[in-house]
Specification:
The chain has one domain. Helix content is 79%, strand content 0%. The protein is built from ten helices and no strands. The two termini are 24 Å apart.
């Protein structure tokens, strides 16, 4: 594990930049979630409806969620390696609650709970839990983006790039 974390640290700026970029894509999903299923739940009709074939950007963002969760989790696990702190633990909980949403309370369930009160064996209030879980991404997206900007300001990317070139 030491070799992995040494490599991770050596390329920290690149790692946190890729993690922030992937995770920031989730804002597309949150906008759709707010303006379609959530808006429909609160006001009766969605503000926007994304029909096929125009729903492909949402599908692409959905496919980036798992790599984003793994990469951003590494950012906070790396932070915890230097000592316990409540914020990285809290953000890891926020991040990893997404697995519950991905594999159990899916977006299809949220949409179905709007259209039909009979959503199978799951209670309709779970749709609100799924929406809440998705919104837990926002503080983590902000913090990851902030970490990326701090790393770029410290010019860590350039330092490690020069170091790699010297070793080659």
């Amino acid at each position: 594990m030491k070799r992995f974390w040494d490599l991770y640290e050596r390329h920290y700026t690149l790692n946190v930049t890729v993690a922030a970029a992937l995770f920031t894509l989730q804002i597309v999903h949150l906008v759709w979630l707010t303006l379609d299923p959530l808006w429909a739940k609160v006001f009766g009709d969605p503000l926007i409806v994304v029909e096929k074939p125009y729903s492909w950007p949402l599908l692409l963002v959905d496919y980036t969620e798992i790599p984003a969760l793994m990469m951003v989790s590494l950012v906070y696990l790396n932070e915890l390696r230097s000592g316990f702190a409540p914020k990285p633990v809290l953000f890891l909980l926020f991040l990893n609650s997404q697995w519950l949403h991905i594999f159990w309370i899916t977006d299809e369930f949220v949409v179905a709970s709007n259209q039909d009160a009979n959503t199978g064996s799951l209670p309709t209030w779970l749709a609100y839990v799924a929406i809440l879980i998705d919104y837990l991404e926002l503080p983590v997206i902000y913090d990851t983006f902030r970490k990326m900007l701090a790393a770029l300001r410290k010019r860590r990317f350039g330092e490690f790039l020069r170091e790699d070139l010297r070793e080659a």
